[in-house]
Amino acid sequence: MAIATAHPSRKKRKLSRLRKPEDMSLADWQRGLRQQFAVEQSFKLHNCGPNRVFSEFEITNPQTKRTYRVVIRGESPGVNYCSCPDYAVNTLGTCKHVEYLLHHLRQRHAATLRRGFHPAFSEVYLRYGAQREVTFCPGSGCPDNLKKLAAQYFHRDGRIKRAAFAKFDAFSRCVARADHEVRIYDDAMSFIADIRDGQKRRARLKRRFGAKNAAGAFRRLLKVPLYPYQRDGALFAAMAGRAIIADEMGLGKTIQAIAAAEILAQDGGVERVLIICPASLKYQWPLEIEKFSKRSTLVIEGLTHRRRKRYAEDAFFKIVNYDVIHRDMDAIAALRPDMVILDEAQRIKNWQTRAAKTVKQIESTFALVLTGTPLENRIEELHSITEFVDRHRLGPLFAFKAAHEIHKKDSSRVVGYQNLSKITKTLSPILIRRTKKQVLDQLPPRMDKNFFVPMTEQQWVPHSENREIVARIVQKWRRYGFLSDKDQLSLRIALQNMRMVCDSTFLIDKKTKHGTKVHELSQLLEEVFEDRQAKVVIFSQWVRMNELVAEMLDDRRWGHVHLHGGVPSPKRRDLIRALREEPDCRVFLSTDAGGTGLNLQRASCVINMDLPWNPAVLEQRIGRVHRIGQCRAVRVVNFVSEHTIEHGMLSLLSFKKSVFKGVLDGTDDRVFMGESAMGRFMKTVEKATGSAPSAPPMPAEEPEPFASIRSATSRHKPTTPQPANVADFFSQAGQLLQSLGESLAQSAKRPGGNGSSSSPLRIESDRDTGRPELRIALPDPDLLPKWIDQLGGLVRSLGGNAG
């Protein structure tokens, strides 16, 4: 029967969503928030059972059009049930739908609700709370013999015994033959089946891949042998069923995932594997699978209608990128994958994004997450990624944050994290992580070096101007403790400009090309390419910087390819192939679009033209080359503009590293930040920009333009003799001026030349920069050589006096 509902009244006490009242427990506060929200809603109800109170209902949200099933058994937390996602994970035993329905029933049937639910039939249901527990509740008409039978499987308080999972089918058969009605609900049966299947699978895999049989079993698994730690990772994932492999970049997570899928195919009935990865890796996965496995692969691509057909085609591995998952959910649901592999799963670290929400809706028996950086900035990121594997493992986000965040006294500001070792222990059944230090004997050596380069005067001008903008905003932050949206935007733009101009003025004005990094890179590459087999991967955050580098590479006739976000996915594999197979392709230019997942071991040198804010991004770049399969020592070079914001960034972000190690590596149990998120960011801004002097240091001389670099490629070494002392320098300068005067005189005699001026000295504004310049008008063409000769003589006389 349908129930017409009126809009419920508001509660008198208003609870804050951001701050827990001191007189309430965390659980009571969260229940209160759901009660508070529920009474403000106008949900639609439909009673699906014969009873008015203790029944099964359908509750619909008119705004989202979503309908959930709600079962009411009483007022105590945990005894009711709702099919919504929040009820399943919040450990509160309630949700807004249950609270809305209870509020509605209290208004009409308060006395009945208080008396409680005492049905004649018995129930086996899943009780939701801090832990999910299968519970037996005998009905008022339950016979004694059935109670005795239940005592063999359940404790006195109704909780199922651990040993009962394996033999629960026997209990089900017995109650099916009894005259008494026993209702066993689907979520309880599903929970029991998952536990039982996991126990059986682990026992089988332990027998097959035990210490005595491991070598032979793994030798027959793939085309190539695995390193011992890779065997451990693949077996760990297969035994867990749903797991996270969080090895550092370059340790071969891909091959471990392929091996785990193969184990589950042979021993777990897996027939359909869906791989979700960034677009840049969509065509690398088939290459890796072909190298290691005999299984078929299919890349899901094209327009929506074409992709839907591709999902229906026959292939063991189907590969798709994150960007299209939301539009393909119907096709993925029809596919019903047995296993889902998320590559570079930090893409779902923000639980509020559409990608994260969509991916977590995909249902599969087995799941494997691959990420070298499950935590980059905040522990909430790790919680979001873990939710895909096991949404109950870390509990609800509000409880997770309350247990591990350290707040400033009398404030909601987070100043640190605590009990990190508890996270490590909680995740140990589903997360495995190995660092390069642990497998160092299987990796080539790595050498890191920072190259400090000076900036030109033209670079210092915008750098200093933007530094002043940052300083003013920092002062405003100190004074008021907050920034307007306009100030935050201005701050981001100023910081971006400071970082970009460290590379070249071209990045901010698209016209001039003042900077020394490209010139220094040219000199470095000349040294690297003395080894004819050497290949280099060059990273910059900005496409424009890579364009400048590409221009230099063209002038030096060094073959290269360029990967950035604008390169279509099908063409990316051709770029990787060129680096691997073409001898003339010496350089792989890339933005951070190529910093994740790509295997670029053919190169042995990584050059970072600029530094990212996040150290994890820097390690991702390096991990493309310094990884399993690399046979040569890896050289890492970071170009850093001296005394600039880049210089300051070298010492930043140590807190992020310490949190990462504390959670995943178990090194620190408490880490303090000392400020709010905004405050920490402002501190990093001050520290980074503070390295830039208020008055720019002596600017660097402008390097030779690319045209002169081209002419130098044939000689490699300068042929012009260097002056031995000051006198020689002035003498050469005089000769240079004299030859210049002769050239100018010839130029001035050409048609259209203008060798006269009404004023020999004048001040004019430069048309490009607007800056005032002193200009000297040249004399008549016939007098120009004599004029220059006299000027050269003056310079030589000065040189003689200097000597």
Question: What would the CATH topology of the largest domain be?
Answer: Rossmann fold
Query: Helices and strands: which structural class?
Result: alpha/beta
Shape: globular
- Fraction of residues in helices? 40-55%
Strand order of the largest sheet: 11-12-10-13-14-9-17
Poorly predicted segments = 1-11, 707-759, 797-803
Q: How big is the Rg?
A: 35 Å
For the termini, the CA-CA separation is: 109 Å
Report a brief summary of the structure.
This protein is α/β, with parallel strands linked by helices. The protein has 29 helices and 26 strands. The relative contact order is 0.06.
Tell me about this structure:
- With 803 residues, this protein is of the alpha/beta class.
- The protein folds into four domains: 2-195, no CATH class; 209-393 and 430-441, Rossmann fold (3-Layer(aba) Sandwich), CATH 3.40.50; 446-690, Rossmann fold (3-Layer(aba) Sandwich); 726-802, no CATH class.
- The chain is built from 29 helices and 26 strands.
- The strands form six sheets. It has a seven-stranded parallel β-sheet, sandwiched between helices. Strands 18-23-22-19-21-20 form a six-stranded parallel β-sheet, with helices on both faces. It has a five-stranded antiparallel β-sheet with strand order 1-2-3-4-5.
